[in-house]
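G., the chain you wanted modeled:
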Amino acid sequence: MRLTTRLPVFAALAASAVLAGCGGASDEVGGGESSSSSSGAQTKLSLVAYAVPKVGFDKIIPAFQKTEAGKGVTFSQSYGASGDQSRAVEAGQPADLVNFSLTPDVTRLVDSGKVAEDWNTSNAEKGIVSSSVVTIVVRKGNPKGIKDWSDLVKPGVEVVTPNVFSSGSAKWNLLAPYAQYSNVGKDKAAGLKFVGELLKNIKTQPKSGREATQTFLQGKADALLSYENEALNIEKNQPEAGIEHVTPPNTIRIENPFAVLKTSKFPEQAKAFADFNFSAEGQKLWGEAGFRPVLPDVAKEFADRYPAPKTLYTVEQLGGWSKLNDTLFDPDKGDIAKLYEDAGASTGD
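Predicted structure as tokens:
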């Protein structure tokens, strides 16, 4: 089932804003080819990631480069829609490290032989380097009075979220209300009914979470479904944007995986960078960048910054990604794909 795009999409305009804000889809960090350690050694690691963690790596990469393991290590970075990035690496885009929005985008690389099968068993965090929650971004003062998922399906409320068939964040955005209205999967029909109603108020679906943010900041729609970390980043760094966020009482825990590729030309340095991300120092930097740390002791230090929702659902409670991708998000047979068709949306190019 491949449908033509019928919703108005402002991806091109949003993409240009992303390039301007992030220095392009690919950034050189650490001085590029000219940077070297005192011994003259030079290692460049290629990091391929989903659209929004650049603010985290802007803190983590310089800190890593100050360590003994990070001396002489530079980085090239590529950011984009999680699914698209994963498929690009599968097709041959060079990568030493990947950080995606959701686990299935790493699983794709396991299946293609690029990531080791035990990538998520080497640490207690199961390969999840950062977490967040799904939240709702609204205009300053919240003129539509949006406080919970039910407010998003009211007549006259227009919502922006990325396309679920290119963006990992879009899947999280729909799973959060689905978890609530399906009673954590026990009443699938009720959950799908709500998602179908929500899709009718989603008029714009950019390719990635970052493009969706830019579309909303350009004045489109009343609400944006997004990561909490993305909302916090805008509020901190772009106060002139005039936005705020409200986290529904019942939402879902976002889990962002990180993996080293088996095909890396610099496995020792790549593993060292991965280890740094999972260290207490690295986790504190993720926390400072707006993400919820995954190390329990570090998370306690950020408890005031990241309040616990009344209910925080997990993918595991819903049956796991394998089940969800097959039954809900498969472009040809998934139940949400069918809802997209009913709403006149696109399930792919």
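Confidence is low (pLDDT under 50) at residues 1-25, 29-40.

Shout if anything looks off.
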